[in-house]
Specification:
This is GDSL esterase/lipase. One of its GO terms (molecular function) is hydrolase activity, acting on ester bonds. The structure is a single chain. By secondary structure, this protein is of the alpha/beta class. It is built from 10 helices and 6 strands. The strands form 2 sheets. The chain has a 4-stranded mixed beta sheet. A two-stranded parallel sheet has the order 4-5. It starts with 10 loop residues before the first helix and ends in a 5-residue tail after the last strand. The relative contact order is 0.11.
Length: 259
């Protein structure tokens, strides 16, 4: 039921914070669950319970776009951080809805370390070296991601304790991406923070917000399989393959999907 740019929170939430113009679709998580319910009869007819019992649900990642909108809309970090508990509650209630429908195996991804993305690194540069962590990422933005992930893990654990017959798996995006930025060669890559599809001229990231991937002036590299970041905010196929391996075998998923 995925939709590009989707948020966990609905439009009214953003409108109430003066961010109505920052949201360009109307497919939040709750709406996607409703769509799924409406389509269920055409997917599994009268045997939905057994069908869903043998299905794997990947719910997210949700949260990233909920933070992009206010951050790009000029909201301060303290205010954006205050949204996190509400976003986690929305994700949790949607997981409950899916469990009530019959889902028993659910993968719940956390958010990525947004302070490591060239888009943020380019838009929010700092002359203070203390604003960056040891791998060159923006500390405050990664703290936001970490806070979200910590609350999400607590919520997933709470749901697991309530539903003994359900298999809830927290999938860690953050660790994989941070580890790859730190040592890309350990994952068969060459570049950590350098964009593949972008334009030169802004620092060492090959990113220009006025010549983003797909726009005039941008071009793709010839070796995307060596890059972590595709366009400044999305990962490459090679990076996602490494993430998927970690989720399947349990290195970055608790418990692992195949375990």
């Amino acid at each position: 039921m995925a939709i590009i740019g989707a948020t966990a929170m609905d439009f009214e939430f953003f409108k109430s914070h003066g961010l109505g113009n920052s949201i360009w679709n109307n497919g939040p998580l709750g709406t996607q669950v409703q769509w799924f319910q409406q389509l269920m009869p055409s997917i599994c007819g009268g045997g939905c319970k057994s069908y869903l019992n043998s299905s794997l649900f990947v719910v997210g990642e949700f949260g990233g776009n909920d933070y992009n909108a206010p951050l790009f809309g000029g909201k301060g970090m303290a205010e954006v951080t205050s949204y996190v508990p509400q976003i986690i509650d929305k994700i949790t209630s949607s997981l409950e809805s899916l469990i009530e429908l019959g889902a028993v195996e659910l993968v719940v991804p956390g958010v990525l370390p947004i302070g490591c993305f060239p888009l943020y690194l380019t838009l929010y540069p700092s002359s203070d070296k203390d604003d960056y962590d040891e791998i060159g990422c923006l500390r405050s933005f990664n703290n936001l991601s970490s806070y979200h992930n910590e609350l999400l893990k607590q919520a997933v654990s709470g749901l697991q304790s309530k539903h003994a017959g359900v298999w809830l798996m927290y999938a860690d995006f953050y660790t994989q991406v941070a580890d790859t930025v730190r040592s890309p060669e350990n994952f068969g890559l060459k570049y950590g923070l350098r964009v593949c599809c972008g334009a030169g001229g802004q620092g060492s990231y090959n990113y220009n917000n006025r010549a983003r991937c797909g726009m005039a002036g941008a071009s793709a590299c010839g070796d995307p399989e060596k890059h972590l970041v595709w366009d400044g905010i999305h990962l490459t196929d090679a990076a996602y393959r490494a993430v998927a391996d970690g989720w399947l075998n349990g290195a970055n998923c608790s418990p692992g999907i195949l375990l």
